[in-house]
Amino acid sequence: MLRKFVTLYRHIIDEERLYPDATGQLSDLLADIALACKVISLEVNRAGLIDLMGLTGDENVHGEQVKKLDEYAHTTLVRAMEVSGHLCAIASEESEDFIPVKEKFMGVRPMSKYIIHFDPLDGSSNIDANISIGTIFSVFKRVSSSGPGTLEDCLQQGTKQVAAGYVMYGSSTIMVYTTGRGVHGFTLDPTVGEFLLFHENIKIPKRSKTYSINEGNYTKWSEGLRNYVDDLKSDSKGKNRPYSARYVGSLVADFHRNLLYGGIFMYPGDSKNKNGKLRLLYEANPLAFIVEQAGGRATNGKERILDIVPLNLHQKTPLFIGSEEDVLEAEKYVKS
Ligand code: AHG
Ligand code: MN
Ligand code: MN
User: Fold this and answer.
1) Whose C-alpha lies nearest to ligand 1, atom 14?
2) Residues spanned by the domain of 27
3) Going by C-beta distance under 8 Å and a sequence separation of 6 or more, which residues neighbour residue 61?
4) 0.85 exceeded by the pTM?
5) Is 234 in the pocket of ligand 1 (CB under 6 A)?
């Protein structure tokens, strides 16, 4: 239910007030991220319109459009983040190396005390079908003392995150974030240009009846995982079976639906890609922080996602994430 006019910024400030020694920098940074995503949502929606012209079958236009959108989202976020003055480094799916924030953009010391990872546009291959896509972000405090950020600042365990969230560009634009005190959802009211609080303290159901996985990879899965998914589809009434299959192909969309209704999302390793397809730092970590704050669970089938020590910026990880009891059950099969 929509709480009257609690804007995202109001909510962030209220959260900040709970930390007496807060300097307000994280609040500003989150507001800057939200602003950048509002700009991206305008372009994403317009791109959908341009794509209608793409119905002439001119693949190039459409293809460039998707690439442009990834690039556009990346550039918009980098520009907004650089001038925020709160970051010493920026890491992005669209940039091979992390981007140290130049001195001229760095705020007065000890400003620029954060680093950010983002997936500028997740699920971007879906834009041509107007399927929901999104931006995912993950914020850490720097570990280096001053100056432009370092690789060490960017390769921190997920447990060290100070904030994480996503913006989903769907039938409406929504933003979900956590700073470690619960998970909160906002809907963009385009008439006033504000994200308004829609769902405070989101909790994911402990058990669900929905599973999300790309079954096209079935033959490449481990035997344990095949047995698990086969079991989900059996009709043994006793164990609240069969589950429903729900798979959009946009991580943000699949995750958000499962967060609200319950469900397990799996992108496992398989015989072709032992670590699966999703990236630890800007897909698995932020969503793992969120799902744990909502009472759910996120592992790589064995180990908690947030405990994984990253070795490189784009490293992949198998991902089992969602309703706690479903993830625990999946782990039993996968370990067997
Ligand atoms: P991105 O667009 O950032 O590369 O992410 C795409 C990911 C994720 O959104 C989704 O869950 C997954 O790709 C779908 O992969 P498959 O098509 O292999 O199922
Ligand atoms: Mn992605
Ligand atoms: Mn992406």
Assistant:
1) 249
2) 8-199
3) 50, 53, 54
4) yes
5) no
